[in-house]
Write a structure and sequence with these properties.
This protein has about 350 residues and is an alpha/beta fold. It is about 20% helix and about 25% strand. The protein is built from eight helices and 17 strands. Strand 5 and strand 6 form a beta hairpin. Helix 7 packs across helix 8. The radius of gyration is 21 Å and the shape is globular. This is S-adenosylmethionine:tRNA ribosyltransferase-isomerase.
Length: about 350
């Protein structure tokens, strides 16, 4: 399939600026792939579709406050630094993006905080936009991380930052309730709809939750610039699938129960580690898997996802799972029915 096939007209006013007051009170569009029918529900109604022995797979990655605003030495020019990943904790080395990139050279120092409490030196130009920074911080590591957290802002996608400022509330809004392993710069947004109460009610019905960790990177939002999708390369992201998650998922598969993947990052994770017989296996490493139609899925029987932006990798993966024509029909209906799109928007359950 081609990039242009995933273009559609999304009215700007349908991009949600903030989540609903209660996480599990968003709307839910339910797509049935067998009957090609569409239902309009509330997210709490997801309880009606699952029961004893079913398994949900969730991504327990935790978003860290990766956006820093600083000044360049001597000139005082404002520089935005997007922390991508920690390269070496002891040496305080980080892989980052800087904006505007043209003003930053190797050897430049950047100052952060009103009292310049954090200083970084540019030591490498890794890509056209990327840099490697060494933070010049003498204190213990815990103190360094606290300083980053106090100065950093929530790394909302640029499309959201274009329509509003980052708010203090985003620190909680842009995090799933089960986030526990810090390392992501993008939230697994399908999981934002789950409340503690809803998860408990699903467990009382006999459903299980298997946690995997995929530290979602900024590549999820980087524009695809090739028409031929086979030529697009996704950024690598750190992935961990442990034995307990494998046990829960494979038990549900063996018993022919439902296996519901929560979100495209989780889908990417589990489809990166499949045995020849189509079962999940443990994994520790990196994945740059890019899923687009046509694709034969091994692990899930259903998925929860959000409403994605045009031409995004997340839309392509969802189309591969739901069926391209059926999904585009559903998106047309979602626009007509004024569903809320993107990060803080409504949810879709694909059965």
């Amino acid at each position: 399939m081609k990039l242009s096939q995933f273009r559609y007209q999304l009215p700007n006013d349908l991009i949600a600026k903030q989540p609903v007051d209660n996480r599990d009170k968003s709307r839910l569009m339910v797509l049935n792939r067998k009957t090609k029918t569409i239902e309009h529900r509330m997210f709490t109604d997801i309880l009606e579709y699952f029961g004893d022995g079913d398994a949900f797979i969730i991504n327990d990655t935790k978003v860290f406050p990766a956006l820093l605003t600083g000044e360049k030495e001597k000139t005082g020019a404002k520089i935005t630094v997007f922390l991508l990943r920690e390269l070496n904790a002891e040496a305080r080395l980080w892989d980052v993006l800087v904006d505007p990139a043209r003003k930053i050279r190797i050897g430049n120092k950047l100052y952060f905080g009103d009292d310049d409490s954090l200083v970084a030196e540019v030591i490498d130009n890794t890509t056209s936009r990327g840099r490697t920074l060494r933070f010049l911080f003498d204190g213990p590591y815990d103190e360094f991380k606290k300083t980053i957290e106090s100065l950093g802002k929530t790394p909302l996608p640029e499309e959201l930052q274009a329509i509003r400022e980052i708010l203090p509330e985003d620190k909680d809004w842009y995090q799933t309730i089960y986030a526990s392993k810090e390392g992501a710069v993008a939230a697994p947004t399908a999981g934002l709809h789950f409340s503690r109460e809803l998860m408990k009610r699903l467990e009382l019905k006999g459903a299980s939750f298997a946690s995997v960790t995929l530290h979602a990177g900024v590549g999820n939002f980087r524009a695809i610039d090739v028409e031929d999708l086979t030529k697009h390369k996704m950024d690598s992201e750190e992935l961990i699938i442990d034995e307990e998650a494998v046990r829960i998922v494979n038990k549900a598969k063996e018993n022919r129960k439902q296996v519901c993947v929560v979100g495209t990052t989780t889908m990417k994770a589990v489809e990166s580690s499949v045995t020849i017989s189509g079962m999940l296996k443990p994994y520790k490493g990196w994945s740059n898997k890019f899923i687009f139609p046509p694709y034969e899925f091994s692990i899930p029987t259903c998925m929860v996802t959000n409403f994605h932006l045009p031409q995004s990798p997340m839309l392509m993966m969802t189309a591969a799972f739901a069926d391209f024509d059926f999904l585009m029909k559903a998106y047309k209906e979602a626009i007509n029915e004024k569903y809320r799109f993107f990060t803080y928007g409504d949810a879709m359950l694909i059965l």
